[in-house]
Design goal:
Largest sheet: 8 strands, mixed
Distance between the termini: 86 Å
Strand content: 5-15%
Structural class: alpha/beta
Number of strands: 8
CATH superfamily: Alpha/Beta hydrolase fold, catalytic domain
CATH architecture: 3-Layer(aba) Sandwich
CATH class: Alpha Beta
Helix content: 40-55%
Number of domains: 1
Oligomer: single chain
Radius of gyration: 21 Å
Shape: globular
Length: about 325
């Protein structure tokens, strides 16, 4: 190899290294503490409670004499803010409780890194006990939907109604078509990338992931990306997400046949993460359930179009409970 070739090689190598360094520097995003993020994202009516060794972020709004409060559970890498549209419309007449689940948003990691379904069901039970909820409506999206139906199976005497919004739980191997996994989730599932991922976070990765779960990506605003980006930066959340991905998303779907409470299933027809096949399976396996598909919406229809999805939820909530379940 001649000196001129070596010189060119070294120059190209230096340029490549410089580009990598510049890229890392541009996307450098170390963890941020809950107190740093709280000023923007935990203003009243937010509150924090000590529960299961965690400082849990929640919002508990509406009349305290509501006989059936509504508990809303978000999905992976989301937060209680995903339910803002529903909460704003409901809180004048109903008690509405939103919470950041362990591993996500301002609540942050579980102290034992336990993101199993039994751990999440135990968390819902502990939360209900702490807030004095004897009976309640339980609604959840994606992972939150899986937690909701698993908790309903474990607490049939306390969960009076169930709302599943693009819920997870069935093995993805049953799908005939490949799921379209958001980029952020794919990165979190790569163990060899974790040392880098936990200290860098290009905003465009978060934006691409959010756009991926909307039926109409044009609805994704910079302010919405801000929420998801900041919640991901919360101290320990990126490590927690990789642990959550390792522990999987399936549960014992045989429990679905045990559900007897009124159940509403809402789904986005353009959901590429948990496709409408899942919706039909839930409707098949939960006796007496009602399925509504919004053909133009994606994986988070309650967030993408809160007004239209809440119309269906209101109709469902207005129906009388079966006689044996009346208070």
């Amino acid at each position: 190899m001649t000196r001129s070739v070596i010189r060119v090689f070294l120059v190209l190598l230096a340029l490549a290294v410089a580009l990598v360094v510049a890229g890392i520097a541009a996307s450098w995003a170390p963890d941020r503490t809950p107190s740093e993020l709280g000023a923007r994202w935990a203003a009243p009516p937010s509150q924090f409670i000590e529960l299961q060794g965690m400082r849990v972020h929640l919002r508990d709004e509406g009349p305290r004499d509501d006989p059936l409060p509504i508990v809303l559970l978000h999905g992976t890498s989301a937060s209680l803010h995903t339910w803002e549209g529903w909460a704003r419309a409901l809180r004048a007449e109903r008690r509405v409780i939103r919470v950041d689940l362990p591993g996500f948003a301002l609540t942050g990691p579980h102290p034992r890194d336990d993101y199993s379904m039994p751990a999440y069901v135990g968390f819902v039970r502990a939360l209900a006990d702490r807030l004095g909820l004897k009976r309640f409506v339980l609604a959840g999206n994606s992972l939150g939907g899986q937690i909701a139906w698993s908790a309903a199976a474990a607490m049939p005497d306390r969960v009076a109604r169930l709302i599943l919004v693009d819920a997870s739980g069935y093995p993805t191997e049953l799908l005939q078509t490949r799921q379209d996994i958001p980029l952020g989730f794919r990165l979190a599932a790569m163990p060899w990338l974790q040392p880098l991922v936990r200290n860098t976070l290009p905003r465009r990765v978060v934006e691409a992931s959010v756009r991926n779960v909307y039926g109409d990506p044009a609805k994704v605003t910079p302010e919405l990306v801000d929420v998801y980006y900041d919640m991901t930066l919360r101290q320990g959340n990126r490590r927690a997400l990789s642990r959550r991905m390792e522990q999987g998303y399936t549960a014992d779907v045989r429990q679905l046949a045990q559900l007897t409470m009124p159940t509403l299933i809402l789904w986005g027809g353009k959901d590429r993460l948990t496709p409408p096949d899942f919706a039909r399976w839930f409707a098949r396996d939960i006796a007496g359930s009602r399925l509504v598909v919004f053909e133009d919406l994606g994986h988070v229809p309650h967030e993408e179009d809160p007004q239209r999805t809440l119309q269906e939820a209101r109709r469902f909530l207005a129906r009388p409970l079966p006689e044996p379940e009346k208070l």
